[in-house]
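User: My collaborator sent over this chain with a note saying "see what the structure looks like." That's all I know about it. Can you take a look?
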Amino acid sequence: MSTAANASLHPLSKDLVSEINRLKKEKNAVLLAHYYQEEEIQDIADFIGDSLDLARKAQGAKADIILFAGVHFMAEGAKILNPEAKVLVPDLRAGCSLSDSCPPETFRRFRELHPNHMVVSYINCSAAIKAQSDVIVTSSNAVKIVNRIPKDRPILFAPDRNLGRYVAEQTGRTDMLLWQGTCMVHETFSDKKIAQLKHQHPDALLIAHPECEPSLLAKADFIGATSALLKFSAENPAQKFIVATEEGILYQMKKLSPNKEFIPAPPNANCACNECPFM
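Assistant: Without extra context I'll predict from the sequence alone. Here is the result:
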């Protein structure tokens, strides 16, 4: 999805926007931003999207420089798909709790304990984990791809246990060994608070990312990847949605459907917000 680079930033930032645009043109650079970024970053990006969207944009980019406003594994993926481009990240400390939950050497030893398992890894992992995998999937196509794997071939799914459990349920697989990684944002939503919110807004649909805990997914009216949640909220006639994923996506939801109400799913008492601290 494209977005104008001179969009509605605060007036004090106009000079900064002009300088960013000048440098992009001078250096033949493209700015890619994830949906979870702050609104101002989404507005100045050349393209915004989820991990898969941005990987595709990176692969087809004709720019000399790809500036990736996202976390480290996303920039790694961009470099793998477009090795001729220079890929820059604004902050090398921008890790990912899910990716970091699967250390390459620890995973290698675990994988060696299960040599007959096909290793299926979620794209939200490091390049070192991708290199140890047989298949890479996204939250959009994981169910479809796992359904194509022979039933007599056991699967080791990494790194997200919640997505893995969801895929196992959707495919009827009972042989999936799950690496116990999670996303710190998607595991903090409060079932109790969401139930209270549903009681207050009985006409609201609960939409959730499959990285959420199983107890939440069981209550969801729709489950999908970030782009799928965005599409569903725009096309569904419902006027109110409780959104169980990182709060940054609400900005695009409101832009596409300004007359609809989007309510962020509340986190538990131990978390002040449902924003990714690395974005």
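A starting point for your reply to your collaborator: Residues 1-12 have pLDDT under 50 and may be disordered.
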